[in-house]
Amino acid sequence: MPEPINQQALKQLKNWVILDEKLHRVFILDDFIQAIGFMTQVSIVAEKMNHHPEWSNVYKTVTVDLTTHSEGCITQLDAELAVSMDDIFNKINHKG
């Protein structure tokens, strides 16, 4: 059973906010192909974790909301997926 997220974990997610009781972030990539590539890489990680994001894509923008539906709150599992998403985004943008 995933544990609810703690404040320390939230502080480490600098580009994420809590919106409607979910972890929320908007990723802006260079173009549509890069956005779809980002989503593809994240989907592999999410599937291995068996933890899937709520997300949408419009052109080069990917909007993400994370929550653990079975627990009814944001958990450490969401934080782990958020960190993985940040890592993938940073590698795509050559910032990491």
Question: Would you give an account of this structure?
Answer:
A 4-stranded antiparallel beta sheet has the order 1-2-4-3, covered by helices on one side. The model has no long low-confidence stretch (mean pLDDT 91). The protein has one domain: Transcriptional coactivator/pterin dehydratase (Gyrase A, domain 2), CATH 3.30.1360.20. A hairpin with a 2-residue loop joins β1 (17-19) and β2. It has 3 helices and 4 strands; from the N terminus they run αββαββα. α2 (32-49) packs antiparallel against α3 (76-92). The chain is globular and about 35 Å long. With 96 residues, the chain is of the alpha+beta class. The chain has helices at 7-12, 32-49, 76-92, and strands spanning 17-19, 22-28, 54-58, 61-66.
Domain count: the total is 1
CATH top level is: Alpha Beta
Proportion of beta-strand residues: 15-25%
Q: What is the CATH architecture term?
A: 2-Layer Sandwich
Q: Could you name the CATH topology?
A: Gyrase A, domain 2
Q: Which regions are unreliable across 5 or more consecutive residues at pLDDT < 50?
A: none
Largest sheet: 4 strands, antiparallel
Query: What is the CATH superfamily?
Result: Transcriptional coactivator/pterin dehydratase
Strand order of the largest sheet: 1-2-4-3
- Number-wise, the strands total 4
Mean pLDDT: 91
Shape from CA axes? globular
Give the distance, in angstroms, between the N- and C-terminal Cα atoms.
31 Å
Count of DSSP helices? Answer: 3
**Structural class estimated from helices and strands:** alpha+beta
Question: Considering DSSP H and I runs of 4 or more, what fraction of the residues is helical?
Answer: 40-55%
User: From the alpha-carbon coordinates, what is the Rg to the nearest angstrom?
Assistant: 13 Å
Order of helices and strands: HEEHEEH
